[in-house]
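Example 3.
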Amino acid sequence: MSLISPWRAAFPGILALEAEGQTYLDSAATAQKPQAVLDSLLGYLASGAANVHRAQHLPGERATRAFEGTRDKAAAWLNAASRDEIVFTRGSTEALNLLAYGLEHLLQPGDELVVSALEHHANLLPWQQLALRRGLKLVVLPLDVTGSIDQARSAELIGPRTRLLAVAQLSNVLGRWQPLRELLALARSLGALSVVDGAQGAVHGRHDMQALGCDFYVCSAHKLYGPDGVGLLYGRGEALAQLRHWQFGGEMVLDADYQDARFRPAPLGFEAGTPPVSGVIALGAALDWLAGLDQAAVAGHEAALHAKLLAGLGLRDGVRLLGAPQLALASFCVDGVHNADLAHLLTEQGIAVRAGHHCAMPLMKGLGLSGAIRVSLGLYNDGADLDRFFDALDQALELLR
Ligand code: PLP
């Protein structure tokens, strides 16, 4: 099957890399950007930059309108109940840190925070450090052999002391949708707060926050074909209202004296300082661009590419997949070959894949691995990208074995 992406030509970055002899297969780390996003970034910067929310002049009013326009688009994208449920952050990591600080006052020593064994450091370390600061217990949900959070064990581990559940929607290492519906229902039935790390999940399909039923959801624009330095924090209205302010300065203040101050509610109360104005505006362009695509065609292309990736890996002796990935990526190691050596030889052949612990060191340790190679796909990848990857893999393995 030829597997040609009809969207490839819209991505100048992927074409430039191709002209340089590079095959980009690292979209789970960051995605290339469509021309519409580049146009938006340049359009804003070239037509007169201005700060938002604080200037009454024309450029300021124009920037604020575009910036707040992205809030409307993000609320629609996620089907939030209100635009005020969308907070702009600098990425998923910052959004998760915001939550770990903003919810701290609700927790008492002995309370339990629940994460899973597959979390990215961004959704582990803020909770781990919160647990250490506050004398909480961090409970880790185990996985089954496929790389899904084990539901039966979770039902035993999530209990009356659970105050918060924080889990990934789609693993950045194992490529599996996690059983959110069941886990979130369990957390809700116990009155625990829930946080979903959607950094990978948000890229594949549109997710309806009201149907999902979590309290908080985070994602990063740069993985969603948008600019870097921008993230989204969705918070259900009542859950957002429980957050304490965590960063101070700028327009997040309602009234200030030398000795005291009062702060705005969400969203502006959690957007201290000058936000990434150009990035937020360009995220709006990314969402518009994505909304204009035939979602079924994108899903079909991604599924076909993924099937080709799994089939090719399955044909090679000694290649061991981590878990049973369902979409978007596959991580693997090769018996008797160090992942860093393999990564080096792939790099030399112009193949841009990721090697190492993928910001999930505890998961790697649990699997008894020092690292793995991850191939991840974007909607601009063609079957030919995978053909080049497999040729390079075969060459590398011939040298290494
Ligand atoms: N969570 C997951 C599952 C991720 O894959 C990543 C990034 O790789 C993050 C969180 C952190 O995202 P960012 O670096 O954009 O803050």
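The chain has two domains: 8-32+294-400, 38-291. The radius of gyration is 22 Å.
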